[in-house]
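Input (histidine kinase):
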Amino acid sequence: MVELNKELFCALGNLSVDGYFIFDAQQQKFLYLNKSFVNIWELETDQIFDHPEILLKQLHPEDLGHAISCYEECLAGAKEKKYELRLLFAGREKYLRIIVFAIQSKAGKYLIGTVEDTTVARHNKIHIEQINSRKNITLEVLAHDLKEPLGMMKLAASSMEDSIAQTGNKQMMDSLAFIKDMCERNLLLVRSMINREFLKSSNIEIDKERVDLVWELRDVVRFYKRSKLGKTKNIRFTSCTEQIYLHLDTMKFLQVINNLISNALKFTDDNGFIGLHAEELENTVLITVTDNGIGIPEELQPGLFDHLPETLRPGLKGEESGGFGMGIIKAIVDLHRGKIWFTSKTGVGTTFYIELPK
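Output:
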């Protein structure tokens, strides 16, 4: 085997925009740091070499416990580990992706890895996810808001047909038929857009990142409450704590939450209650979506997640059912290695439970 040239390795490290490091776990000190590692942490090289614990002071307080558990996990195993952490500076955060290898040798155990500053990419992804989530909610709100006026227009046109038919005015009859047809077409168009968007969620693999679940769920409910639906329903979010961190594909998981809330809206009377709650358990997180609507009849419950046609039914105001929402919901939860189930009683309401591993 050709002997490795340390100077070439160091030259590579100094050219990289990512941070490189070698840490002696037994002596609790760094053996190597490249310039980018120091720049990412915004410290001096000597500071880190002399006092490695100074890195902990740069961490976001909410991520300190997570960082310590990541370090302990690295020491306990030999496989490659990938982590996401945040640094906190005056008025700004920095997102990091850290890849660590634990190497055991006769001299001791070493942690070797890289650090990548993902702040820009992370902010862009968050922004895109927010836009996508609000777009989906907007489509649901749009479908709800259009349903009533278009339905009334269709009903008015139908009520006029008998009277106008007696006059024999074919032009007026054709105009009424046109109005009815356009109302129906536009209602189907909006519903088709919603179904198509949700269907896309199950067609690609999930890409999980560490996110604050409480913030994401609160933002979804906040958007609903600002819409017209918030004035006709009592929509509320609660949580056992201010932050709950999970590894999720945020865009797809919020599709699940949005679809469950949308279904609750369809089957709950005006002024009814819809609640979203997040509870952190020892090894899992439990999310519940509750309503006091009409409930799911017992005969429809067994096939609810199985795409069975007999489980499909229109909402209280005639809202259409796409026929695949619940199947996709379960598929996305399964991809997150989670479980989903529900309890329901006719005339009392329904609660969906989603349990996800931490």
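The radius of gyration is 28 Å.
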